[in-house]
Amino acid sequence: MKCDMSDEMKQEAMELCITAAEKYADNYENVSRMIKETMDKKFGASWHTVVGEGYGFEITYQLKHLLYMYCAGNLAICIWKSA
């Protein structure tokens, strides 16, 4: 896991990712949508998400607004906020 967030935001984001992954286990698009919409409402607009298995990425993000974690084995979730 890579995280550049405050402890409170990190805890809420991780719980959200796990909840979304469990709720929509068979649909990564819905996992991503739930995470993005919830983060936008809770922490302001411009959150982005990538959910899947076996991908690489290069992003620019706002400092203290990045979380990359694995959930349920090899399901990777990356969320970040850009200005």
UniProtKB/TrEMBL annotation:
One of its GO terms (cellular component) is microtubule. One of its GO terms (biological process) is microtubule-based process. SMART domains: Dynein_light (SM01375). Keywords: Cell projection, Cilium, Cytoplasm, Cytoskeleton, Dynein, Microtubule, Motor protein. Transmembrane segments: none annotated. Pfam families: Dynein_light (PF01221). InterPro entries: DLC_sf, Dynein_light_chain_typ-1/2. It is found in: Cytoplasm, Cytoskeleton, Cilium axoneme. SUPFAM superfamilies: DLC. Force generating protein of respiratory cilia. Produces force towards the minus ends of microtubules. Dynein has ATPase activity. Belongs to the dynein light chain family. Consists of at least two heavy chains and a number of intermediate and light chains. This is Dynein light chain.
